[in-house]
Amino acid sequence: MWFFKKKKDTLQEELIKKIKEEDLDMSGLFSNINNRSKIEALYKELCKLCHPDLYEKEPYMRELAQELFTKIQKNKNDYNALLKLKETIIDTLINK
Predict the structure, then answer these.
(1) pLDDT tens across 28-67, in order?
(2) pTM for the model
(3) 3-state secondary structure of 1
(4) From 16, 17, 37, 46, which residue has the greatest number of CB atoms within 10 Å?
């Protein structure tokens, strides 16, 4: 009589099993998709407002713009964070 050992699952197969067993939360998925155009428009607007190249002749303002620009890049997909950054940009760069 022959006995075969069950082959061990690879890491990828184990992950696939775990994913299939978990319940999906679809509540936040579509809200993010619907707001995508708003997020992209706000992101582009903020990039134009505080691009460091706009402040070439003012080193201090250029540093501020560079810091804000990197924060915008990091929060590219977070609408609320981009709104807060917009307020900061208006206060620091535009209404100097």
Answers:
(1) 556 556 678 888 999 999 999 999 999 999 999 999 999 9
(2) 0.63
(3) coil
(4) 46
What's the mean per-residue pLDDT of the chain?
A: 83
Reported for 23-26, long-range contacts at CB under 8 A and 24+ positions apart, including other chains, are none
Question: Which positions ≥6 away from 92 have C-beta within 8 Å?
Answer: 64, 68
Question: Which pLDDT value is given to residue 74?
Answer: 94
Residue 55 contacts residue 65 (beta carbons within 8 Å): yes
Dist CA 62 CA 93 (whole Å):
10
Q: What is the CA radius of gyration of the chain?
A: 24
Cβ burial 7-30 (10 Å sphere, 16+ → b, else e) = eeeeeeeeeeeeeeeeeeeeeeee
Structure tokens at 42: 């706000």
CB contact set of 79 (below 8 Å; sequence gap of 6+) = 35, 38, 39, 42
